Amino acid sequence: MALKLVEELAPAGYERLVYIEDEDAGLRAFVCVHSTVCGPAVGGCRMWNYASKDEARTDVLRLAAGMTHKNAMAGLGLGGGKSVILGDPRSDKSEALFRAFGRAIESFGGSYYTAEDVGISPEDMAIVAKETSYAVGLDHGAHASGDPSPFTAEGVFQCLKIGARAVFGTEDLTGRRVLVQGLGHVGWSLAEKLHAAGAALVVTDVNAAASQKAQVSFGAEVCAPDEVFDQQIDIFAPCALGGVLTHETVARLSAKLVCGAANNQLLEPSVAEDLLKRDCLYLPDYVVNAGGIISVAGEVHHAGPEYRAERLVQIARRIDEIVRTSRKEGKTTIRVADEMVTDILAKARKVADAAA
Ligand code: NAD
């Protein structure tokens, strides 16, 4: 059976939702274009063993809208979209599946660019790229951007220093106790930078070997993954999972600043109010962790290294602005950031309407 693309009714505020199926290739996927108001939609492809098609649809809708926010805030001239492939990344991958997916992406004609996300490797994306010019985050090729993690870590580090200045009156991190949760691609790179800046590291990872390595390399203190919120720290840098900031954990958090790479750190939006009440400055995750998408955007725009450097500086400036506005208006930083995005999108829509 050939590749089948089925247009689904996109919810209000979304441009397009397409269900993709190729039985021979074993492909079942969704592509969601949330917004192209700022430019072509860009967002990774996630492969996940979803319990149902409905669960996959809900996930792609949530993730695509998040990409519009992240890309608009980072000033990339890109919109937001996402794709999800239904299947077990450990057992269901094949060349035929990724080629069929690539043909589906090509049919969007450049209104959506895909890249790696959870469950998808650069090797998988290289197969997708055999069928489409709209696959990015590649390791090889004239404009390949490679591993985005170092850029993500650099963006988080720059924002963390802005946060430190706002909270402690200085960007100097010497002796500051910073807890890095998750020593993976981003967390390790961030820990290196913090160590070089003189911070006193506390680390945790479910992978004990990673923590031990940090103990040796950085003289870090190690804590167990379930003891994170019992530590006396100045700064918390969540770089593992989402949903770590809850009403319960925030009540136990000693840090005065939260700045890390993990997506969706707040379990629910109202947790931001708890952080504000506790006088703990939370730097919105989708603003500080945009370094990776900035790196990918350089590939989309065929831009040189200066493009990435400029955009990284820009996210630090945005954080500065968010913190100032939040303090002036007594609003949570996430609310200020969301309002800025609404404003950016409204302006872009005006420009697009005027050009139409
Ligand atoms: P990764 O998989 O390389 O690292 C995650 C690390 O967290 C691993 O070492 C893992 O063992 C550890 N971990 C998992 N559960 C844990 C727990 N309960 N307690 C402590 N440690 C735990 O992932 P990554 O690429 O470094 O990304 C980290 C986070 O940043 C993710 O939430 C990701 O979505 C987000 N993010 C990454 C990028 C990027 O460029 N890689 C960009 C934006 C956002």
Structure summary:
It contains 12 helices and 13 strands. The chain has about 350 residues and is an alpha/beta fold.
Labels describing this entry:
single chain, 356 residues, alpha/beta, Rossmann fold, 2 domains, seven-stranded mixed β-sheet, six-stranded parallel β-sheet, 12 helices, 13 strands, 16% strand, binds nicotinamide-adenine-dinucleotide
Strand segment tally: 13
Structural class: alpha/beta
Tell me the quaternary state: single chain
Task: Provide a count of the helices.
Answer: 12
Radius of gyration: 20 Å
Bound molecules: nicotinamide-adenine-dinucleotide
- Report low-confidence residues grouped into runs of 5 or more: none
Would you identify the CATH H-level superfamily of the largest domain? NAD(P)-binding Rossmann-like Domain
Overall 3D form = globular
Helix content: 40-55%
Question: Largest sheet, described in full?
Answer: 7 strands, mixed
The total domain count is 2
Mean pLDDT: 96
Share of β-strand residues: 15-25%
CATH topology type of the largest domain: Rossmann fold
Q: What does this protein structure show overall?
A:
This protein is an alpha/beta fold. It folds into two domains: 4-64 and 78-128, Rossmann fold (3-Layer(aba) Sandwich), CATH 3.40.50.10860; 149-343, Rossmann fold. 44% of the residues lie in helices and 16% in strands. It is built from twelve helices and 13 strands. The chain has helices spanning 53-73, 95-106, 122-128, 149-168, 185-196, 208-218, 247-252, 271-277, 285-288, 291-300, 305-329, 333-355; strands spanning 4-8, 16-22, 27-35, 41-42, 45-48, 79-86, 112-113, 177-181, 200-204, 221-222, 235-238, 257-258, 281-282. Strands 1, 2, 3, 4, 5, 6 and 7 form a seven-stranded mixed beta sheet that branches. The chain has a six-stranded parallel beta sheet with strand order 10-9-8-11-12-13, with helices on both faces. The longest helix has 25 residues, at 305-329. The mean pLDDT is 96. Bound molecules: nicotinamide-adenine-dinucleotide. Residues 148-149, 152, 181-187, 204-207, 210, 225, 239-241, 261-263, 289, 292 line the site of nicotinamide-adenine-dinucleotide. Residues 146-353 form the Glutamate/phenylalanine/leucine/valine/L-tryptophan dehydrogenase C-terminal domain. Keywords: NAD, Oxidoreductase. InterPro entries: Aminoacid_DH-like_N_sf, Glu/Leu/Phe/Val/Trp_DH, Glu/Leu/Phe/Val/Trp_DH_C, Glu/Leu/Phe/Val/Trp_DH_dimer, Glu/Leu/Phe/Val_DH_AS, Glu/Phe/Leu/Val/Trp_DH_bac/arc, NAD(P)-bd_dom_sf.
